[in-house]
Write a structure and sequence with these properties.
This protein is of the alpha/beta class. The chain has helices at 2-14, 47-50, 58-70, 84-95, 106-123, 146-151, 155-158, 176-181, 208-218, 273-276, 292-307, 310-329, 354-364, 386-401, and strands spanning 26-30, 33-36, 41-44, 99-103, 133-137, 168-171, 187-192, 222-226, 252-255, 267-271, 335-341, 344-349, 366-367, 369-371, 375-378. It is built from 14 helices and 15 strands.
């Protein structure tokens, strides 16, 4: 443990304390197996908040190294490069959207979406600038920029950061009547996660997303879904909104995390021509967004998701996982709920689960995270093998039974 303690000590000494971190230092990843600096192997059951699709997959490594070998790693958007156009075409066709703005961190995609919605309200809906409102969901997580904090109702994240923008109006997730109650002429539309991630892995009632889209479109308003955690197979569908069918298709979508397979910082905001048409040169941008390496690795990640059938695998494994967890845990008095879909599952207890996560790490060599205090979030890489999945679930079931 000497190496682990030394490295954690360096982070504690020189890094701002912005995370509450599990006491482990990883040095290598191979599929769903993480290896720490002491050589101990763990099963990855959190996949860097749903980002890791297939760690150490040679197709991802070859994509990055192949692009590095060309010598073209960054051009900025003041010129064109040969990887961007083909990537844009592919991701637009994949999502059914018309145009895309490539970004880096997930929150940047959200920022671009909010800007598009606000300007759309002025230019396409006739709302006075400064009066626009965007409906968001209570319990959602959008990031940690000031705009993202304003879009969330979390006092913990907002504390002492000054006054928040009043652009956003929060309503209860899954409550269509609450949404209807705040509709007004100055509302541009809705920005929301189709399934809450940090909010506790919460799925909406069946038909809710479709009803939201129909309600907004009936009033000529906009819907943007934040699929940064849920998109690209995590929930057993390519996108979480598809659980409600084609009638739930939004006007815009935010992607990130799995968009690069967990190998590179990349995100994107995509939308219809009407929505994206509000942008003009200088109204948005990113030095690194859509750089050649990002495009190359993203194309490889999308290839892996398609060629390896990871969406179907997520659906299949997710159902068996839910069945096994419910069979073993549903009758325990301290287990409140087991929910989710695909490889995106939440186990809610009647108490904080941080100690369960610590025990899973120490005794069972499973890396699992808590969210919303009382929820254990199970979200392994989509490439996890059946054997690894079974071993992880055995540990989780035992740890929760022994709480």
């Amino acid at each position: 443990m000497q190496q682990t303690e030394r490295l954690i000590g360096l982070e504690d000494a020189y890094g701002a304390h912005i995370y509450s971190t599990l006491p482990v230092v990883f040095a290598k990843a191979d599929g769903a197996i993480l290896t720490d600096v002491e050589g101990v192997e763990y099963i990855d059951a959190y996949s860097a908040y749903s980002a890791n699709v297939a760690p150490r997959d040679p197709r991802l490594i070859c994509a990055i190294m192949g692009q590095y070998m060309t010598g073209l790693s960054l051009t900025a958007r003041c010129v064109h490069h040969n990887r961007l156009g083909p990537w844009m075409k592919r991701v637009c066709e994949l999502t059914g959207m018309d145009q895309v703005i490539p970004k880096n961190a997930g929150v940047e995609a959200g920022e671009a979406a909010w800007k598009a919605m606000l300007r759309y309200g002025v230019r396409n809906m006739g709302i006075q600038n400064g009066s626009q409102r965007i409906i968001v969901m209570k319990g959602a997580f959008s990031g940690r920029t000031l705009a993202a904090l304003a879009a969330m109702d979390s006092a913990k994240y907002r504390k002492d950061f000054g006054p928040m923008s009043d652009v956003f109006v929060s309503v209860e997730f899954g409550d269509l009547e609450a949404l209807k109650a705040v509709l007004a002429d100055d509302v541009v539309g809705v920005f929301m996660e189709p399934w809450l991630g940090e909010g506790g892995v919460v799925c909406p009632p069946s038909g809710y997303l479709k009803a939201v889209v129909e309600l907004m479109h009936a009033q000529e308003k906009i819907v943007v879904f934040d699929e940064i955690q849920t998109g690209l197979g995590r929930t057993g569908k390519l996108f979480a909104w598809q659980h409600d069918g084609e009638g739930a298709k939004p006007d815009g979508i935010c992607l990130g995390k799995a968009l690069s397979g967990g190998m590179y910082a990349m995100s994107a905001f995509l939308g219809t021509k009407d929505l994206m048409g509000v942008f003009d040169p200088g109204s948005d941008g990113s030095t690194y967004g859509g750089n050649p390496i990002a495009c190359a690795v993203s194309e490889a990640a999308l290839d892996i998701i398609e060629q390896d059938g990871l969406v179907e695998k997520s659906a299949r494994m997710g159902q068996s996982t839910l069945d096994l967890l419910r069979m073993n845990l549903n009758k325990l008095p301290h287990v409140c709920d087991i929910r989710g879909g695909g490889l995106f599952i939440g186990i809610e207890l009647d108490r904080p689960v941080a100690e369960v996560c610590q025990r899973l790490l120490r005794e069972f060599r499973i890396v699992c995270l808590d969210t919303h205090k009382n929820v254990l979030r199970f979200a392994p890489p989509l490439c996890i093998t059946p054997q690894q999945l079974h071993k992880a679930l055995e540990g989780i079931i035992r740890a929760i039974k022994e709480v």
